[in-house]
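Listing S7. Sequence submitted for prediction.
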Amino acid sequence: MKDEYFNELVASIEEAGKIRRGEATPSRSFEFPEPDVKAIREGIGFSQSKFAALIGVNVRTLQNWEQGHRHPTGPAKVLLRLVQSDPASVFKNLHINHA
């Protein structure tokens, strides 16, 4: 490894340590708001059990999300955003008859 690259890597690691310890602020950050699960579900007119089945989670999990005890993560968060933005496409692609 060239000295130039190594020194750049060391500087980057040192900067990351300072950010982690709160001694510096990151040059940029990204925040993604938590989806409002209840509003999404009510927006498409589904019961808790029907919506839980649609997104493949237990009804109790859905209730915990809606009550703020827990928050969806990873694929569930992405699926909720898709349902919110284009529910018809999600129904079509998941072969759900929502009538």
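Caption to Listing S7: primary sequence and predicted structure tokens for the chain studied. The radius of gyration is 21 Å. Residues 82 and 97 are 17 Å apart (CA to CA).
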